[in-house]
Amino acid sequence: MCAAARLAEPARMTVDIARGLLAGGSERYEKHLPDLAGVYRDDGAYAEAVALDGGEPVYWVESSTPETGRGALTIGLSVLRPGRIGDEFAMTRGHLHAQSEFAELYYGVAGSGVMLLESVEGESRALPITPGVVVHVPGGWIHRSVNVGDDTLVTLFTYATEAGQDYGIIADAGGMRQLVVADGDDWTTRPNPDHGGYRA
Ligand SMILES: [Fe+2]
Fold first, then answer.
1. Which regions of the chain are under pLDDT 50?
2. CB–CB of 146/93 below 8 Å?
3. Residues whose CB is under 5 A from ligand 1 (ion)?
């Protein structure tokens, strides 16, 4: 080890649940409805929602990467507002880690959601996530958050920074294999007719 190497300063962050903020975080991005073309399957409902859009973000992510290099963690807060486009619930774009063997942990902070996970080979899982629930996303699983409740879904996540994200894998497949859709007052999954399989 290089004698001159400096240790990163230990970091402390606080979650502001009501405002969906990660105090002490350093990065933020927002996704607005017009940014999410192709994510929802009902083109007509999406166009109608865009026409009526008030400009509030659908979701935002506040995060911090307190150190760099091998072994570093990115810690973040994902905040997904409730809503429906056709019979689908508000959701994040979703991704596979660019280095797909890297896992991730999600912790439910507020609201009622589903983590939709799919393998390239064809398996699907839909895991409810509510306050106090921990979801482990193993390596190799494409994942997205879906807000199936009436309130904002807030989750805390952490992953190895070097994992990166491949957002194109879902778009290239015509969407994820399963859709998370309304079923009365509840939710269910049904096959996405536009899904053409994931590239290997
Ligand atoms: Fe991830």
1. none
2. no
3. 104
